[in-house]
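Lecture 7 notes: from sequence to structure.
We start with the chain below.
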Amino acid sequence: MATDRTGGGADKGSTNATAQQDDARRRGRKAVIGLVIAVAAAAGAGGAGLDAVLAARDDGADCRAQDARVRLEVVGGPPGGGTGYACVRTVDDQRRVVVRADGMAVQRDGDYEAWLLDGTGPGEGVVALGRLGRGPSLALSVPAAMDIRRYNIVDISIEPHDGTPGHSGRSVLRGRLP
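Predicted structure tokens for the same chain:
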């Protein structure tokens, strides 16, 4: 006598239907899991691809090997023995002076600011480019009408928080653009 393995005297037709439903559910789960894995893999690859594109995009925040650089020389001994360089770049049709300053001590009573000078003397031919911020390298926009051949001296100064917009006269790094 054969033993009924369907657990309740079910006939063979309902056993096959149940087995088919179970198989369909398993295939459905496998398909969903496969789809989730495929989407995750595509997102990961797309993310990696996007990272590569973003990494390859040049944001202009540093000088390239082909850019003519000027070494910024110490003027009056910068705090912390800072060093630096600068170059002029055009990024997205915008002319920028890229300034990199390393080893500069944090200023508690002021900020480092980049300027372009024309070399005519103290207080004359001075154009503020902007504060250097916390990173070592910064691309600062140059006004389109500015003659970079005339204003070709990059100057980094310590500017106190005194509300005076002009150059403090406390230059710490300087160099002449090529």
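Points to note: The chain has a mean pLDDT of 73. The helical segments are 12-56.
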